[in-house]
Amino acid sequence: MHPSRNRLGRRPGFTLVEVVVAIVILGVLGVALTRLLVSQSRYYNHETNARAARTIARSSMNILVSDLRMMQDQGGVDLASADGKTLRVLVPYRFGIVCSTNNASTTVSMLPIDSATNALATYGGFAWRGPTGTYTYITPSSPLGVEAPVSSASPTMCTGSGAGQAQLRTVSLNGRTGDILDLLADAPSGATQAAPVFLWQKITYTFAASSMYSGKIGLWRNVSGRANEEIMAPFDTSARFKYYAVGDTVSHTTVPALLTDIRGVDIVLNAVSPKVTSNDPTPSQAKIITSVFFKNVKAF
Length: 300
Hints:
The chain is α+β, with helices and mostly antiparallel strands. It has two domains: 47-87 and 202-293, no CATH class; 92-201, no CATH class. Helices cover 21% and strands 34% of the residues. The chain is built from three helices and 15 strands. The protein has helices at 16-68, 115-120, 156-159; strands at 77-80, 86-101, 105-110, 125-129, 135-138, 150-151, 172-173, 176-177, 179-184, 196-209, 217-223, 229-235, 240-245, 262-272, 285-293. Strands 1, 2, 3, 4, 5, 6, 9, 10, 11 and 12 form a ten-stranded antiparallel beta sheet that branches. A three-stranded antiparallel beta sheet has the order 13-14-15. Strands 7-8 form a two-stranded antiparallel sheet. It is elongated and about 125 Å long.
C-alpha cells in the first residue's frame, strides 16, 4: 500500500466540513474575545476619565479651602457676584500684635513666617481686631506696594518697657524670627495696643471660559497686582459659589444685601473629564460640594 494513503485509500487530513466548522468556532471565539477587550478598554477609559474629573474637583477644593478657611467672619468678602461665578476675598497671610499707632502708621510685632509664604503674598492692607471681636480693615489708597510694611523706625514701641510701650518679646521659631514693622496708612487706623492684627492679600476666584479647553469652564485665581492664573479646568457651567448669611443652615444662590453678613460659602465644583470614552460623547463628571465657614465671631 502506498505510504501516503490510509486503508480506505484516502490521503490523511481535514475535510472541508471540518475546516469550515473550525473556522466558525475560531470566529466566534475571536468575536467574543474582541468584544471583551473592547469592553474592558472602554471601562478602563471611563474609570480613567472619572478619576481625572475627581482629581480636578479635589485639587480645586484644596486650593480654595486653604484660602477661604483663613478668612474672618466680617469683612473678609470683598465681592460676591449675583451669578455665583466670582468671589473676591481678603485673605490673611501673617499675624501679630499691635504695639502702638499714630497718625501716619501702626507699629506691630509680627510672628515668624515661612519666607516662601511671605514672598508669594502680595500685601493689600492690614486689619486689627477690636474688643467686640470685629476686625477693622485698613486699605492703603496709594498704588500697590507704595505703602507696603517696612521695618519699624521705633522698634522699642514693641520691645521697650517705658510708658506707652508694649513690652513684647520678639518670637523666634524653627530658625525664623518675627519682625517689628510699621504699617503705613493714609489716616489713623484707630488700632488699640495689644489688639490682634493680620496682613491680608486680595484674591479673586472666578469660574470663567477656559483658555486650555475650548468651550469649557476654568477656575481662575488672581492675587491683586499679579497675573490672572487658570489653576484648574475643565468644569461644567453649573460650577459656582453659594452663600451662607447670618443664621442660615443652608446655602443660597442669592447674595446677601450686606457682604458683611456672609458667614461662609458652598463651593460647587462640578468637574468634567478632559477626554471622553469612545462610545460615550459625554465627559465623565465629578460633583463635589464643600462648605467653608469663616473664622471667629463678633465677640470673644
